[in-house]
Design goal:
The complex is a heterodimer of chains A (121) and B (107). By secondary structure, chain A is mainly beta. Helix content of chain A is 0%, strand content 52%. Chain A contains no helices and eleven strands. The radius of gyration of chain A is 14 Å and the shape is globular. The chains are: A mainly beta (121), B mainly beta (107).
């Protein structure tokens, strides 16, 4: 059974760096083809893809946010970490992590419950 | 980036209705398209991948079609549990962009 769970601060101040951790079970990020991605959703708005990291360390980023995003993995801990620098109130959103499988087309078949992050001074 | 445009943005329907949601890509994406269902306060659920492949456990009243730039999600007979927001996502090219969503609400 695959599960994922996001953890991190619920409130950050403008200009701070947000660090979120995705802890997962039921799969290994050392298995060929497997990846973990991050997606966010501002209140009442659409989903926005942020970043993904694959079993081989390959990482990809949202074009508009790439300069502010960093995604890393710790295979031994079954964790993926997303950092978002220079947070702004418009970054207020629920942040989801999700499992993907490259050979199956990069869709996200398992999701965490999401973590709401508010940016406010 | 590839832009994904869904229509309509919202649809009012009754239980038993047939509902079709369209999704158009700004450039050809072959069959690299996924559909998700999201209910309020919940994570999205993958319904369909590769334009028409139904995920395990998804009811057969859901179907996907299309290739290239034009795609559709059809619910053949709307059930009470189907009232939700639906998103398409292209998985052809990074970044894998989402549509803006279609809200299926009770008429």
């Amino acid at each position: 059974q695959i599960t994922l769970k996001e953890s991190g601060p619920t409130l950050v101040k403008p200009a701070q760096t947000l660090t979120l951790t995705c802890t997962f079970s039921g799969f290994s990020l050392s298995t060929t083809g497997v990846g973990v991605g991050w997606i966010r959703q501002p209140p009442g708005k659409a989903l926005e893809w942020l970043a993904v990291i694959y079993w081989d360390g390959d990482d990809r980023y949202n074009s508009f946010l790439a300069s502010r995003l960093t995604i890393t993995k710790d295979t031994s801990k079954n964790q993926v970490v997303l950092s978002v620098a220079n947070m702004d109130p418009v970054d207020t959103a629920t942040y989801f992590c999700a499992h993907t499988h490259y050979p199956s087309g990069n869709s996200f078949d398992y999701w965490g419950q999401g973590a709401l992050v508010t940016v406010s001074s | 980036d590839i832009q994904m445009t869904q229509s309509p943005s919202s649809v009012s329907a009754s239980v038993g209705d047939r509902v079709t949601i369209a999704c158009r890509a700004s450039q050809g994406i072959s069959s690299w398209l996924a559909w998700y269902q999201q209910k309020p306060g919940k994570a999205p659920r993958l319904l369909i991948s590769s334009a028409s492949s139904l995920q395990s456990g998804v009811p057969s009243r859901f179907s996907g079609s299309g290739s290239g730039t034009d795609f559709a999600l059809t619910i053949s007979s709307l059930q009470p549990e189907d009232f939700a927001t639906y998103y398409c996502q292209q998985t052809h090219t990074f970044p894998p962009t989402f549509g803006q969503g279609t809200n299926v609400e009770l008429k």
